[in-house]
Amino acid sequence: MRIDIITIFPEMFDSVFNYSIIKRAKHKGLTNIYIHNLRDYSTDKHRKVDDYPYGGGAGMVMMIEPIFNCIQSLKKKNNYDEIIYLTPDGELFQQKMANYLSTLNNIVLLCGHYKGIDERVREHLITKEISIGNYVLSGGEIAAMVVTDAIVRLIPGVLGDETSALSDSFQDDLIAPPVYTRPAVFNGWAVPEILKSGNAKEIELWRHQQSIKRTLERRPELLKKREREE
Ligand code: 6GU
């Protein structure tokens, strides 16, 4: 999978994408992530990418021209399945959407700033708009990192254990059960006996019960969602 990210802060991605799962995915050749500096596509001598809003008002607006130039140059080389704009008024990003995006070959993530981007970008160049939650971030970069991480870890072969992405919290709208490792007793706090029993069937049952119990206690709306979908 190829992910192209368009941003005015390319350095922000350096550290995050060079650790852990994303690093491993890149090394294995399972994903290629390219960061593009939007200013490189400005035709202005000061590399300007924003301007005053028509009609007046506070804040600057990201101009269409550099974004158009950047997307055009990418489209010349690759066929994109989705060109995504990260914005707080987009569709809420949830596991289902991560699953969908992880099946695609090429996507673009456009990070917005200032008051927003020229509406004509959204009308004519963007195929999907995503928000990562009901709060406002100062830019789309952190959201693009969140989306990238959630997608990349689902690409087959990225996680060591092929089944581990399937047992994630939210993958079936249930919260994952608790996990433990050695020592069996620490500070007088013991690991549940059942997990040391070696009885695979009983352990599976216990884990499922724990998932339901936790979901009921912590995120009851997820169970209601499950009922509606069944
Ligand atoms: Cl995608 N961008 C910004 N700027 N703020 C957000 C967001 C995105 N999702 C939630 N808040």
- CATH architecture identity of the largest domain: 3-Layer(aba) Sandwich
Structure annotation, total helices: 8
Describe the main β-sheet briefly.
5 strands, parallel
At the first level of CATH, the class of the largest domain is: Alpha Beta
> What is the CATH superfamily classification of the largest domain?
SPOUT methyltransferase, trefoil knot domain
Mean pLDDT: 95
Low-confidence stretches: none
Kindly, what is the distance between the CA atoms of the first and last residues, rounded to a whole number of angstroms? 32 Å
The value of Rg in angstroms is 22 Å
- Beta-strand level of the residues, as a percent range? 15-25%
Q: Which descriptor suits the 3D outline?
A: elongated
Number of strands: 9
The amount of helix comes to: 25-40%
- The tally of domains stands at 2
Order of helices and strands: EHHEEEHEHEHEHEEHH
Helix-strand makeup class:
alpha/beta
